[in-house]
Structure formats: C-alpha cells, structure tokens
Amino acid sequence: MKKPLYILLTLLLFTACTTETVKDAKQEKLLPRIYPDYLGVTIPVNIAPLCFSMADEGVLLIDAVITDSHGHSMHSQGEESVDFDLDDWHALLGQNRGDSLSVTVSAKYDDGWHTYRSFSIYVSTDSIDYGICYRLIEPGYEVWSKMGIYERDLSSFDERPLIENTQFEGCVNCHSFNRGKTTDMSLHIRGSHGATLLRHNNGPFTAYNTKTDQTLGLCVYPYWHPSGRYIAYSTNTTNQLFHSADRNRIEVFDDASDIQVYDVEKNELLLSPLLKQDSVYETYPVFSADGRSLYFCAARALPEGSHQLDSIRYNLCRIDFDPETGNYGDRIDTIVNAEALHKSVSFPRPSYDGSFLCYTLSDYGQFSIWHHEADLYLLDLSTGQSLPMDEANSKDTDSFHNWSTNSRWLVLSSRRDDGLFTRPYFCHIDAKGKVSKPFMLPQRNPRRFYRERFLSFNVPDFVTVPTRFNSHQATRLINSNSRTPFGVRTSP
Amino acid sequence: MKKIIRPICTLLFGVAVILFFGLAYPHHLHYQEQFQLFLFDSAYVWEMVKLPGGTADLLGRFCTQFFLFAWVGAIIIGLLLSAMQLLTARLAKWGWFYGLSFVPSFLLWLFLLDENALLGGVWAVVLTLLASWGFDRLTDGWTRRILLVAAVPILYWMVGPVCVLFFLLQVLHHKRSAWSYGVFLLLIAMPVISSCFLPVPASSLWTGIHYHRYPTVFPALLWAATLSVFVLTLIVRAFYHQRSKKFNGQCSTVNEKNGQCPKMRVNESRDEVVQSMPSNSILGEANGQWSMFNGQWSTLSVFVVVAVIMGWVVWKNSNFKAEKVMQYDFMARHQQWNRIIDTVNAEKPNNPIGVTVQNLALAMHGLLPDHLFEYNQNGISGLFPKVERDATSPLPTAEVFYQLGMINVAQRSVFEAQEAILDFQKSARCYKRLAQTNLINGDYEVARKYLMALQKTLFYSDWANETLPLLGDEEAIAKHPEYGRLRQMAYQEDFYFSDHTTSQMLQSLFLSNTDNNLAYEYLLAYCLLTGDRENYYYFTSIQR
To answer: What are the Cα distances from residue A244, in Å, to A144, A416, B495, B505?
Structure first.
C-alpha cells in the first residue's frame, strides 16, 4: 500500500523540481512585455534580483536566461514569474559592475513557446544604500486604518516593521534620517498620543511636544542639517477638499504655514520673521549639502475664505543659514520661479554632493502626491538650469523622492502602475545629471505582491544600515504622555 | 428518561438560539459580515494565525462570512453554543443541576448580542473545551504531563488567553503537583514573552486580541462565560462531594440498622447515584422509582429556571433599536426599495439612518417630494446625514450618493467607512462598492485590484468574475443598466466639496443631466425641507 504512495511522492517531487525546456519556440521580433518594466534599466550592483512576470496573464510559463559578456549565465523559469537565486544574482552582478547583462525571455502560451528579442540591464558602478524606509498606508482621505513605518533591505526581499499603529492609538508619519544615518532620527505620532520622537547621535529617543505658543502648530516635514545639530521643520495649518468630478480626487492645502529650524542641542526653535510671513505660505524646508542654505517652497497666500486652490503656486526659494550661530540670512532668493510658468514646486531635495536639486512640479498647490500631472525636475545648482527628468517621469504622478547617500540614486514615488497606489522606483543620475530609466522596487513575485498590497509606499528615504529601533520602548514612550516642550528663540 | 431529557434540553436551547438570531436578530449578523473580507489566501490566513488567538480568529472569520445569509449564521451560532454546553456538561456530573451547564452558553449568547463581539471569541472558548476534553481522555502519567507542557503554548497561540480555562480544568480534574505550578508559570510566560516581540499592545495579550472589534474594550461577557465553566464545575463538584460524604455517612447508619443501603455498581456513574441519593431512596424500591422520576423533573425544573432567567436576560439586553437601524442599512445595501416602503409604512423610522433610507426608497419610486411630509423627517440630514468618522453611518449615506451619481463622494464615504473599521479588517461590501465606483470613474486598474481580491472570496467571486470583463470595455459599460446610467448621471463640472452636501451640489448634479430624476427628487426635497420656495418653483418649471 505504501509503495504507490512513495512512487507518487517521488513523481511529485520530480515534477516540482524540473523545468521545461524551451523548444520549437517562435522567434518574436518584439521586445517582451514584462511586469515590472525592467527593459533597459540601470541598476546598482547590490540590488535584489529583478524578478518579473509577463505583462499579460494568459501565459502558462515564463522563462528567462541572463547572460553576460564573460560567458556567465543564469536561468529561471516559473508559472507566474521568474525568481532568480539571490546568491547567483549577486555573484553575476558583481562580475559585471559597469557592464551590461542580456536578458532573453521566453513565454509559453497555448500555442507553444515564444522567444522575444533580448534586452539589456546595465549594472552601474555606483552601489546603492543598504535599504529604504517608508510608511505603508492606504491612499485614503482623513481616516486611517492600519499603518506603520517599515524598512526594506534593498539587496534582498526582506521587509520589517519598525513601528505599527497596532501598538498604540494614532498614526505615524514623517520619519526622517540625517543623510541615511539612522543614529539621527525623527518620527511624528499623530492622534491622542501625539508626539515627535527624536534621537540624536544614537542616543535614546525623547518624546517632544513641538507646538509652542509662538508658532502655528506642530512641526511637520522634517529635514536634518548635515551636522546633525539642526532640523528644519515647517508648521502648517492643513486642510482637505475633495473633487466632485476631477481625475485628481483630493486637494490637500495649507491655510497658513511657516518655517522654523530646531536646534537639537539647545532644544530651541529658531524663528525668523522672514520665514513666518502671513502673506506667504512657506513649506518643505531642506538644508543645502553644505548646510549653509535653507531651500523651501513659498507661495502667495490666498485671501481669507478663498478656495481658489488652483491659484496657489509655490516657487523654490532659498535663504542663508549660519550653522555656527543658528542665524538666518536677511533676504530670500527665488531659485525657481514656477509661478511665472503657471506651475508649482514641491518636495525640493538637494543631492548630498551639492550638484543638483530634484523637485516636483505640478499645476498648482504643494501636495503633488495627489496630482496626476506631477513630474520630477532636476535643477543643476552650478548652472541654475532646471530640466524635466523625462527618463524618470511617467504619464501619472511622480512626486516624493530622496537621494541615496552617494547622490547617484534617486528613490521616487510614482503612481504609474495603477494611478492610485504609490510604488517606489529607483533611477540612476550620473555626475552630469544624466537620468536613467527607473526600475520598480524588486519583489520575489512582483505582480502578486503589488496586486495584493492595498497600501502606498509613503515618504521613501534611504538608510545606510538597519535601523536600531525598539518599537516596544517607543510605544511605552508614546503611551506615557510625558512630553518635553520645544523652546523658542527668535532671530532678528 | 434522563437520556432523553438532556438531549432535548440541548436541542431546545440550540433551536432557541437559531430562532433568535434567524428571526429577531438577523441584521446583526449581516452587520458582522459586512465588516470583514474573508479571503481564501495564504497571506491572509498567515496574518491571522501569526498572532495569539489566530486560529480561533480564523475559524470565527470563516464562519462570519456565512452571516451574509442570516439563517446560516444563526445555525452556526446555534451549533457553537450547543457544542459549548455539551462540552461544559461533560466536565462534571451535574445531577439535578444539569441546567446550570447552559449558563456559560447563555453568557456567550449575551456576548454575541453586541454587534462588535467577534465569533473568534466563541471559537476560542469552544476550542479550549475541546482541548480539555481531549486531555481528559489521556491517562495520568509522564506522557500526559509532557503533552500538557506542549499544549499550553500551542493552545495559547491558537485561542489566546482564554486558554487559562484549559489549565484550570486540568488542575481541577487531576492531581495538583509541582508540575501544575510549572505549567501555570508557562501559561503566564506566554503573554509576557509575546509582548516583547509582537506589534500589539501588551494588555491585549492578556485579554485577547480578536475577541472584540474594539481593541480597547475588555470582553467581559466572554471572560465571564469562560470562567463560569470553571466556577460552576467547581461548585457542582463540591456540592456533590459534600452530599456524597453525607450519603456515605447515612449508608453506614442504615447498614448498621438493616443492611439496605444501595451499593454503587461498578459501571454506575456517580451521576446516577447522586440522582437517586435522597434519603427516601433507601427506603424501598417504589420509593427509589419515585425518586428517579422526581430527579428527572428536578433536572428539568432547574433547566427551565435557568432558561427562563437567562432567556429573559438575553431578551432584555437585546438591542432591537440597533437591529432596526441595521435592517434599514441592509435593505438599502441590497436595494430592496419596495421592502423599505413596506417597512416604513408599517412603522415610521425615528432614527437618522432609517429616515435616510426611507427617503432614498421614496425617491427611487419617484415619491419623495410629494410624500416627503407624510413620513418622519429630520431636516436635510434626513437626505444627506453628515459623513461621520465611523464605520457604520457613512454606508447608507454612501448608498444615496452612489444612486444619485455622486460617484466621487460615494467613493470617499465608502473608503472612509472601511478605514474606520476598528480592528483594521477590510469589508467585502466596501470592496465591491469601491470596485464599482472606480469602474464608473474609468479607473480600471484600481477596480481590477478590488475585483481580483473579491475573486478570492466565497460569496463575491461570481460577481467579481462577471464584472472583470467590463473593465475597459466602454461600450459594455455604457449599455450596463447600472454603470451606464450612473456614468450619464455623474457630474460634468468639477467643484470642491467637504463634509456637507449643499443645495449647490444637487443643483449642479441635476443641471449636468436633467434626466437625473433622482437628483431632481432630492433637489425638490431639499428645497421643501429648507423652505426655499424660489428654487422649488424654478426647478419644477425646468422639469416641466
């Protein structure tokens, strides 16, 4: 009785382990349509395997062979997607740093195998940071469900939560690191246990109340000074309105907003009358690479009660900042006059090498995440010239972004996949500002993964090492309701 | 007779539970079903079973999906509560007090009156009793002790903290030893260790993660039911232990007098002995038969007393007002416009959701402006209640928005309702509606995501399979009786809206397409409720 069972089991195991030989394949002249679109992308040498599926779902089997110019090759076959071995993949990429790989895809349909024209993947000499950190949240309106801050190892498929709102009542947002260094970290908690958790120089976290009687409200949109001593924040009175028939669903806008810098060592908010003008909305402050300038977005404020949201247009501005004294300059320069182009700037992010500044340009407003027309632009800080990042942009929303610590990679948030759920993409930008085609964050079975995940990747930022974060200690801190207040110092 | 009476009692109880949930409380079951999305998917299952109590939660959610059909749900609850009673009954020889073995089941029934009490909690108690039953069949010895040590963490992980009942029953039934104290420490260690690495509040590891939809609510009735099993067993055993001692004393006295004391036969259960224990039984065979008869009636009497008292408590604690509100929501969800009219004609609703649904049904029949004041009204809130930040009230309002053609508003209301589900579950009802609104808006890839998730459900997969081919097929959508109509009725001009529906929003909707009769009905009703005669006459003149 047992014998047939053993035979059956052996047969099953044998069947499971074998791959079908691609034979009598029809040679197609076209490039394969794969998901995600990895055709001709440039990747870092330490990225996780670019597994993919055929874009159409009628396929019975997909087969991929990757070869290099040194005679090495790698093969994978699967029903839903190809799944390259992690070690083999990294070995192959290591052998081809600065070179390209050729990928030949075959797909089996009801009428047999089809082999498509090979495409290339370029392996950059520039590596990418250890991982990215992001918030996972449903792309919703005002009410939130489960969410959390997560970290993903970019060289594998491992994702781990740093903190989830299943541990306390509230929402988490605006995680921020100092140039990928997780020893300087800021995290906001909203809700009944609201706080800003701050860690400096790998010290313990402290829970702060960032609202003072001299500022509009809580501190938002943090950006660390390269020295780690300061954090630039905006403070915003934010509202939402909803579209009745537009393709964009939501407008998130400020009724008022100012900019301030927090001195971590002195526990003081540094205010300037230039950055808290009632007639101007100031937001999204970021320090320049040398820490001596503060870039931000500024728009003329609407008259009170006006809802002409499509007339709010932000320019990219700059003010001097003295890290030694914490004093601001006495004039504001307009770096990109988007208003003149009937456009609006959001999310400025200078590269850490001081060469470029990447920003998002949309038709109006500052919350370009919900604007389908939003695109990325690259400002060359040496020439002052701004150019659209055509290689990286898509027909849909391309908005929030951050630089890798070597300033060669940009993680960008895009809704190109389905128009609603934001996914992280990575593109290479060389020293001359040449932008490569972006690739989607790799997953073992990307179609299944992204189809089944009803969450947006929010505020992706690079981290150089795994983040040391004890969520239980943080939760105790959040639930303790003990908050250290921010002090205030007004600059002349 | 005893062999008949006890099953009859259980049967009567089970039937009562089924009739209650099938006839008096069906919409509570529908309400439960709409706040979950049970997927036949390994990732979904893993999300549940990776937490303590996950197996019970999984079984609870699996059963809850059948609540879409209230009678099936009622039968499931009836079976579970009956199983609970039978498992309790086997824990002791209840004698006349057999009726007390129904108390834990009645307490669970009380627990389930709360629409946010989750069936996973009931499964947790039943699984614990099943495990206890299994262990009682093992003979005492090292095998059993080792299995006990293994069972405690496994059971904790499967059913959550109510597994403390398992430990208590094991201690009750078997010799207490240092081993028992070790097992107890292990039981205490489980939530302590779990709290170090699980992303849930530490308190929920002690009170249960998925016993109740509100994470901060302590499920007192569930715990009362759980602990009552132990307490009642303990009391009954102690009572009969005392009686047995007294009886043995009497026997020795009788023996000394006439040697007529009945001896316990080898296979005679203690139960049968205690049934015939009253002192009369020792006086002769006739008296013994009378005593047996008297014992059965006593058993029945205790059952009747428990059933009447607990039944009364259940009835008094039932929330029939909420049931009525849920009924209106259910009828609106299934677009039972005629049934709504019949219901409001029988009893005019006096709750906001009832009035909203009543007005929608009247408008669907073209009766709203003419018959508006024949029914209860609560101003324009009766047309469009303010969208609250909860999971319940936005859904009927969203139904109004959807039927009117205010697709973006409907989409937002449904999305927000789903986000507000307190235990972070998703909703099959909401997924379906979000698929529809995205389809109507032409956001086909987003609609596809929702539809492909619904393909993994038991009761929504057929609908999802039928709807998927529509994506991108503009001609088929235009011809579709619902989606085609709603596309035509939708806003042509964009404007901003917030939480309040205004007259301008209705005017814009009507002027976008003057064939939108529902918008017309609502616009006139709006004018009537706000006393806006000018616009009332203006819009009636347009329609003529």
So the answer is: 22, 23, 6, 9
**Which amino acid would we find at residue B508?**
S
The reply to whether residue B496 touches residue A244, judged by beta carbons under 8 angstroms, is yes
**Among candidates A492, A485, A491, which has minimal Cα distance to A213?**
A485
Tokens (6 digits) for A447: 């179609």
Q: Per-residue confidence at A11, pLDDT binned at 50, 70, 90?
A: low
Nearest to A76 by CA among A109, A49, A113: A49
- As for the ipTM of the complex, it is 0.92
Count CA atoms within 13 Å of residue A2 on its CB side.
0
Out of 3.90.228.20, 2.60.40.3780, 1.10.10.10, 3.40.50.300, the CATH code matching A26-123 is 2.60.40.3780
- Please report the pLDDT score of residue B268 as a whole number: 39
| Nearest residue in B to A306, CA atom | B496
B209: chain A residues, CB-CB within 8 Å: none
Q: Count CB neighbours of A30 within 10 A.
A: 8
Between B87 and B384, the higher pLDDT residue: B87
Contact status, residue A315 vs residue A297, Cβ threshold 8 Å: yes
pLDDT digits (tens, 9 = 90+) for B396-419: 999 999 999 999 999 999 999 999
The residue behind tokens 């093992």 is: B138
Is there a contact between B449 and A454 if contact means CB atoms under 8 Å apart? Answer: yes
Per this entry, what is the length of chain B? 544
Domain boundaries, chain A: 26-123, 131-480
Q: What phi-psi label fits residue B113: left (phi over 0), alpha (psi between -120 and 50 degrees) or beta?
A: alpha
Q: Which of A447, A466, A368, A390 is nearest to A150 (CA)?
A: A466
pTM given for the model: 0.91
Sign of the dihedral through C-alpha A23, A29, A33, A38: positive
Tokens of A272: 């300037």
**Bridge partners, residue A271, by sequence:** A490
Residue B56, chain A, CB below 8 Å: the answer is: no
* Contacts of residue A332, Cβ cutoff 8 Å, sequence gap at least 6: A274, A298, A317, A318, A319
> Which residues does A contribute to its contact with B (CB < 8 Å)?
138, 140-146, 148, 161, 163-164, 166-169, 240-246, 249, 251, 307, 309, 417-421, 451-452, 454, 471-472, 475
At the top level of CATH, which class does the domain A131-480 belong to?
A: mainly beta
Residues of B in contact with A242 (CB under 8 A): 408-409, 412, 496-498
- Residue B408 touches chain A, beta carbons under 8 Å: yes
> Does the beta-carbon distance from A242 to B408 stay under 8 Å?
yes
Long-range CB contact pairs, A208-212, < 8 A, 24+: A208/A483, A208/A484, A208/A485, A208/A486, A209/A483, A209/A484, A209/A485, A209/A486, A210/A262, A210/A269, A210/A486, A211/A486, A212/A269, A212/A485, A212/A486, A212/A487, A212/A488
In angstroms, the separation between the Cα of residue A176 and the nearest Cα of chain B is 21
Condensed to tens digits (0 to 9), the pLDDT of residues A351-371 reads 999 999 999 999 999 999 999
Nearest to A239 by CA among A193, A281, A276: A281
φ and ψ at residue B74, rounded to 5 degrees? -65, -40
Place of tokens 């499931």: B76
What is B171-240 written as a DSSP string?
HHHS---HHHHHHHHHHHHHHHHHHHHSSS-HHHHHH-SSSBSSTT---HHHHHHHHHHHHHHHHHHHHH
Confidence of residue B272 (pLDDT cuts 50, 70, 90): very low
pLDDT band at B504 (very low <50, low <70, confident <90, very high): confident
C-alpha A89: how far from chain center: 24
Beta carbons of A119 and A31 less than 8 angstroms apart: yes
Q: List pLDDT tens digits, range B120-169.
A: 999 999 999 999 999 888 887 888 888 888 999 999 999 999 999 999 99
Write out the two tokens for B499.
């939480």
